[in-house]
Every structure is written in structure tokens, then in C-alpha cells.
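Entry 14. Structure prediction run on the chain below.
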Amino acid sequence: MPHLVPVHYGKFAKFLEYIGCEFVRQKGSHLIYKRSDLNRPIVFPASKQLSRIVIANNLKTLNISKEKYLEIMGKIR
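Output returned:
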């Protein structure tokens, strides 16, 4: 079974836009995205590599499985 790997924040931002999230603002080095059906915003740092923990926590907020995330990331270039 494939596992989460660190990704560049730009690719994660493309993933969020692909699933319908929109960029709200940037506060310091953190990007903030929202979607109408979410209880809280998606927040992540603008760093070269997002850790697996940051990715996993945001997937939990989005209610997206790891498998679905990997499937979508395979489509994004």
C-alpha cells in the first residue's frame, strides 16, 4: 500500500484547487484555503516540503482518504 510522502507546497495548493478549495489569504508564511462545506480552513506553511503530518491532518479536515489523495495527486502535474 502506498504511503504519504512530503510534497512541495505548490503541488499541495494545486491539489486543494482541484478539489474545489479557494485561496483566501496568506498570513506570514502560511497559506489559507477554504471550501463552503468545511468546518475550518485548510492552513499549511509555504515550505519546500510539507511534512506527512501536515498533509495527513489536512486530509482529515477535508474528509479525504489517503488513497483518494494519492489518486488525485497522480493526475496533477
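The chain has one domain: 9-75.
Filed with the rest of this week's runs.
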